[in-house]
Amino acid sequence: MNFDLKEAISVLERTPQTLEVFLTGLSDDWLHCREGDETWNIIEVLEHLIEGEKHNWIKRLETILKEGEKNPFPAFDRFSHLNQKVERSLEQTLLEFKELRNESLSKLKNLIHSDSQLELTGYHPAFGVVKVRQLISTWVVHDLTHISQLVRIMAERYRVDVGPWEEYLGILKKR
Amino acid sequence: MNFDLKEAISVLERTPQTLEVFLTGLSDDWLHCREGDETWNIIEVLEHLIEGEKHNWIKRLETILKEGEKNPFPAFDRFSHLNQKVERSLEQTLLEFKELRNESLSKLKNLIHSDSQLELTGYHPAFGVVKVRQLISTWVVHDLTHISQLVRIMAERYRVDVGPWEEYLGILKKR
After folding, report:
1. Who has the most CB within 10 Å: A137, B18, B49, B80?
2. Considering only CA atoms, which of A64, A43, A53, A55 is closest in space to residue A12?
3. Candidate from B29, B127, B155 with C-beta closest to A144
4. Where are the domains of chain A?
C-alpha cells in the first residue's frame, strides 16, 4: 500500500492547472478530435471531470462518513455530461473544473482529520464494502486515467501522419 | 492526414510547462516510483526527453535538409540517459528540458519556412525513406507517449490502494 493523504492531495490539486497549461490555446481541431465513434473528445473529458467533482467524490466520502455501510452510494452516471449541450469556451470549462476541485479539496481537508478515518467503510453498489482510502486513491488514479486519455486522443489524430514510426510509439498501441 | 506545422508546434511548446506544473513539488516517492524492474521512473523519462532534444529531432531534421536520403540518420540511443548518473534536482532537469525545447523550436521555425519542405525525405536506418512531416508528427506523438507514460507510472503506484475500483480504471490495464 502506498496511499498517503498529503501525497494524494498533491496530485489532485495539480490536475486543473496542468490541464490549463496543456490545453489553453490549442486549436479546435485538437480540442474536438476523437479516437473514433462513441469516444469522447477533450471537452467531454473535462465535462466528465467536472461531473465527478459535483456528484461523485465528495458525495461518496460524505456518505461513508455519515452512513457507513448502511446505504449504497447514490449512483453516479459516468455518461451524464454527454447529455448536456453546454455552449461555453474551453477557458470557462477549465475554470469551472479548477474552482470545483478547489472546493472539493477544501471539503476533503475538513472532513478527514485523522488517519483512522481512512479505514472507514461504505457500500458501493457494484463492489460492496469499500474504504475511504480506496475512494481517495481512486480519485487520484481517475485523474491520471483521464490525463492519459487526453493525450491518447491527441496522439490518435496523428496516427497516419507519423508514418512508419507508428511502430515505436507505444501510445498508438493502446485503445 | 491531419498534420499542420503550427498545430504541431503548439503542442511541442506546451510540454515543458505542462510537466513543470504537474511535477514540481511532488514527493520523491512519486518521482522515483516505477512500474516494475527495467522500467523508467519520472526523472528518467525527463532525461530521455532531454536526450531527444539534444541528439534526435533537430539533428534528424537537419540531416534530411542537408543530405536527403544519401545517408541514414545517425543512430539515436533511446537508453543512453540511463547511463548518466547526473545528480540534480527535478527543477534543474525540467529547466534544462524547457531551455532545450525552446532552442529546438527556434531552430525548427528557422529551418522550415515552406510547406513543400514537409515533403522532403531522409533515410531512417530501420524504416527506410521518411518525410519531414512524419518526423515532426512523431516528435509530437513522442511527447504525448511520454506524458502518458508519466501518469501511468504514477497510477501504478496506487494499483493496490484503489481496491476493487481497479476494474473501472483503464490506465491500470495498460502496460
Report:
1. A137
2. A53
3. B155
4. 5-172
| Reported pTM | 0.95
Cβ A37 vs Cβ A165: under 8 Å:
no
B152: helix, strand or coil = helix
Q: Which of A2, A147, A154 sits opposite B151 (nearest CB)?
A: A147
8 A C-beta contact, residue A85 and residue A47: no
Q: What does the alpha-carbon distance between residue A132 and residue A65 come to, in Å, rounded to a whole number?
A: 9
For an interface test with A, give the residue of B12, B17, B127, B161 to mutate (most A CBs within 10 A): B161
> Which residue's entry shows cell 496522439?
A155
Q: Cβ(B147)–Cβ(B15) under 8 Å?
A: yes
Q: Do A130 and B163 make contact, defined as CB atoms within 8 angstroms? A: yes
How many angstroms separate the CA of residue A81 from the nearest CA in chain B?
18
CB B11 within 8 A of CB A150: no
- Cell 490545453 sits on residue: A23
pLDDT tens, residue order, chain A (175 aa)? 899 999 999 999 999 999 999 999 999 999 999 999 999 999 999 999 999 999 999 999 999 999 999 999 987 777 777 777 667 899 999 999 999 999 999 999 999 999 999 999 999 999 999 999 999 999 999 999 999 999 999 999 999 999 999 999 988 986 5
According to the CATH classification, is domain A5-172 in 3.40.190.10? no
- Residue B25, classed as helix, strand or coil, is coil
